[in-house]
TrEMBL record, chains A, B:
SMART domains: FCD (SM00895), HTH_GNTR (SM00345). GO terms for molecular function: DNA-binding transcription factor activity. Coiled coil: none annotated. Pfam families: FCD (PF07729), GntR (PF00392). This is FCD domain-containing protein. PANTHER family: GNTR FAMILY REGULATORY PROTEIN, TRANSCRIPTIONAL REGULATOR, GNTR FAMILY. InterPro entries: GntR_C, TF_FadR/GntR_C, Tscrpt_reg_HTH_GntR, WH-like_DNA-bd_sf, WH_DNA-bd_sf. It comes from Nonomuraea phyllanthi. It comes from the Bacteria.
Length: 222, 222
DNA sequence: GTTTCGTTAACCGTCGACGGATATCGGTTA
DNA sequence: TAACCGATATCCGTCGACGGTTAACGAAAC
């Protein structure tokens, strides 16, 4: 049904199970509608049900699993889910950007250069996964700098989904450099201090990302 | 330290513990910074650690507890938290309102009349708790009608906090009728079909709610 | 063929216990 | 007095098991 290898060392077994299942669900290797049974998963991962329970609860919170009558079921990610993820994110990140532009100092913004360099480097090497990582790291700074704990919390809830999603779809892009440069433009906007204009730029940025993802997914094996 | 009575019948023990602790944390009976130890809680509630663990994880997700080095600690709700809760909500609910105005039918909007009647009734009786309940039920419809699963999910994550918070602060308001009528105005806006104007009205509505809450909390015992 | 009902199996909520990791505290040393 | 360090207690991650509840299945009745 799906491959179970070995559980790499993780802070906790549950966390590792979360990572595994998350990947399987988002990539569709675990078909939507699949019934996940605690007992069976425990046997397959060869651990007890405790950590499995923790993992399933977490994934439910991430919207990847759905609790129905008995047990949890896999919720696949189709086009409407991509739509949901990006509209929600646009809403959250706009608020984060507004707040961070009110609070952050030039030194704070300087920390965004690291992820940009990492993106360029990943683009040079053609590493889709590293690019996705740096990309999300860049955007995460907005949340951190917003000084809004709950905003950070909600973002972190969905960030792993974007991470897997981006890693997969980026792999189809021939050249990731344009995307890296788009972030440079975003950083310039932030530094200009023009909030409204930069928020619009962010919206456009995310709209573009959404469309690229839709295109990639329409073409890819789904 | 805090009173433990008996665990009323609930769908699950963990859920009941969640309700209890949530109330204690939000009302401040459980002081910010308090270290919650699984073993001790299990003994106090006279149940095993399993359901306690579930409860603590859930409350952490709601932002009421914070995971530090060892175990979970109570995060109090101060003025900045009220600020956070309402700014986040404004962001989410604006999106929900926009989407629901694009999708919902007149019959859908008709279902908002029930909560309004309930608010008026609760205002007549002076029941702060029932008013809060109907109030949130009214707003929840926006999320449901938005057809956006993740938006609903995030809202449901914070709704219980608003529920307790409103119940407590509403109890200080002499007359709840004005608040009920504000919702009527909101419903009229929705029916008018003018999205931008109604979104602005919602923002003003929530801003007013936030300020009333701040005033009530500044005056109340905190 | 369809519905009703009873039996069986599946599945989750809950429990109690173990062991390792970590903070705490007392004692020793510089 | 202050810093280091080791013994101790605390606390959480994990385990395996039990029992009640609910879904699934098949048999009996219409």
């Amino acid at each position: 049904m799906y491959e179970i290898t070995s559980l790499r060392q993780a802070t906790t077994l549950g966390e590792e199970v979360v990572r595994r299942l998350r990947y399987l669900v988002i990539t569709g290797r675990l078909a939507p509608g699949t019934h996940l049974v605690e007992d069976r998963l425990a046997r397959e991962f060869d651990i007890s049900r405790g950590p499995i329970r923790d993992a399933l609860r977490k994934l439910e919170g991430e919207g990847l699993l759905e609790s129905r009558r008995r047990g949890l079921f896999v919720v696949g990610l189709d086009e409407s889910d991509v739509e949901e993820l990006y509209t929600l994110r646009e809403s959250l990140e706009s608020l984060a950007l507004r707040r961070s532009m009110e609070r952050a100092t030039p030194e704070d913004w300087a920390t965004l250069q690291g992820p940009i360099d990492a993106m360029r480097d990943a683009a040079d090497r053609g590493s889709a996964e590293d690019f996705a990582s740096a990309d999300l790291e860049f955007h995460s700074r907005f949340y951190e700098l917003s000084g809004h704990r709950r905003l950070v919390s909600v973002w972190e809830q969905y960030r792993p989904t974007f991470s897997v999603l981006l890693s997969v779809t980026n792999a189809q892009d021939a050249d990731l450099h344009p995307s890296a440069e788009a972030h440079v433009a975003l950083l310039e906007g932030v530094r200009s201090g023009d909030v409204e204009s930069t928020v619009r730029e962010l919206s456009a940025h995310l709209l573009g990302a959404k469309n690229r993802m839709r295109a990639a997914r329409a073409k890819g094996a789904h």
